[in-house]
Amino acid sequence: MTIKLTNSKTRKKEVFEPIDPNNVRMYVCGPTVYDRAHIGNARPVIVFDVLYRLLRHVYGPDHVTYVRNFTDVDDKINARAAESGRSIREITDETTQWYLDDMRAVGAMDPDQMPRATEFIGAMISMIEGLIANGHAYTAEGHVLFSVESYKDYGKLSGRSIDDMIAGARVEVAPYKRNPMDFVLWKPSSDDLPGWDSPWGRGRPGWHIECSAMSYELLGESFDIHGGGNDLMFPHHENEIAQSCCAHPQGCFARYWLHNEMLQVEGKKMSKSLGNFFTVRDLLDGHDGMPGVPGEVIRFVFLSTHYRKPMDWTAEKAEQAKATLMKWYRQAGEAIDSAELYQPVVDALSDDLNTAAAIAEMHQLSHANDQPALRASMHLMGFLQNGIPDWARGVDLLDYADRLSELRTIAMETKDFSAVDAMKTALLDAGVEVRMSKAGVELDAGPNFDAAKLEGLL
Ligand code: AMP
Ligand code: ZN
């Protein structure tokens, strides 16, 4: 069983060979927790969840360690606390829970470890001390900076020279920097900002050092896969490599770097000003008059595009995905578990995580009505984890519609609409879409439909 992955470091598709097949190790950069995750943020989560599932299948579920961090110290969080008057901890705890709920809703397994940056400040301080001691970092005006000129491979991942970067980037020019590209490892905190005691006074870490410190603590100085969106390649990943390779020169940090391409919405870059910005929760619950989209439908749309291609979220794709999944669930949902996975689907995923090709294979299985193979493939891709969801069952709501019209006829006579309102509220609460007009009553199961809540209504 060979897995091939496109390694951003070498720009080649390579055969994946883990350092230790008994413990395959993967690190993925996680969210900064100050607000709901937008749908773009779900792309790396879903992509690396499929890779995690594939690795567990190939190496065994107990032989893979997946780490994804929470950035809970950041100036955007500080700003949110200041403007809302809430405590930082309250904001980061709440947002962390939202993130977990939303990502579970799109079928992502929790990683094995989800460290919070603030729990690793000591490890970051030790790493920075090491970098100063071996000449890769220096102190200036209460800051500690990484010296990019001290690391000859700086820029290799993103393929730029330091001079190109200076010319092309909006770098923060500060008088205390020896080179404009030098980046902050530690900075001073005023009394109103979070801070920790350090050899350089009370302060807080720069952004990049947390991933270097946490991956070292949890996965060691050399591990297998590092992932994230390709917007993180520069400067974040470039800086992670510089810090880790200089602090632990005997290690090689991450061997395979994987980057997902960006997500757009209806052909345009997502932005608040274009009005096409929405969060995963907006999509799940429905927003701006649009009905909610079930988490597995979101997952299906995402996986229909290969992770290295730009992906376009459209309402039309969601409609199609919903119809396909509905059909597949009915075919595969009640099938008996097959022991064997369908090899062409595994092969497609093993070829640089070609989820689009895997889905094409699954369409073939559906046409051939090969229910056990379809079921096993859906499992591997992270679908059908908790049986057939209610929205895919196609429930019969006719009796409820009849009862509601009956109550309405009575209410027209008595002018007492309380029973109509009570039934309507109960139906809405069960996730039923209710349309009442002169022509009659129409009911449909919405994406959050919960059949259990209908009990006793007739
Ligand atoms: P952030 O919280 O901005 O650091 O982003 C968290 C993760 O989401 C990173 O891996 C980003 O690369 C990824 N990401 C952000 N925006 C998008 C997008 N539009 N499409 C795909 N991935 C994204
Ligand atoms: Zn990172």
Could you please describe the fold and organization of this structure?
The chain is of the alpha/beta class. Helices cover 40% and strands 16% of the residues. The protein has a four-stranded parallel β-sheet, with helices on both faces. α9 packs across α10, α10 packs across α13 and α14 (398-414) packs antiparallel against α15. Bound molecules: adenosine monophosphate and zinc ion. Adenosine monophosphate (AMP) binds next to α1 and β9.
Class from helix and strand fractions: alpha/beta
Count all strands and give the number: 15
Bound molecules: adenosine monophosphate, zinc ion
Oligomer: single chain
Q: Which regions contain 5 or more consecutive residues with pLDDT less than 50?
A: none
Query: Termini separation (Å)?
Result: 55 Å
Radius of gyration of CA atoms, rounded to a whole number: 26 Å
Order of neighbouring strands in the sheet with most strands: 4-3-9-10
DSSP summary: helix tally: 15
* Average pLDDT figure: 93
Main beta sheet strand tally, sense and closure: 4 strands, parallel
Percentage of residues in helical conformation: 40-55%
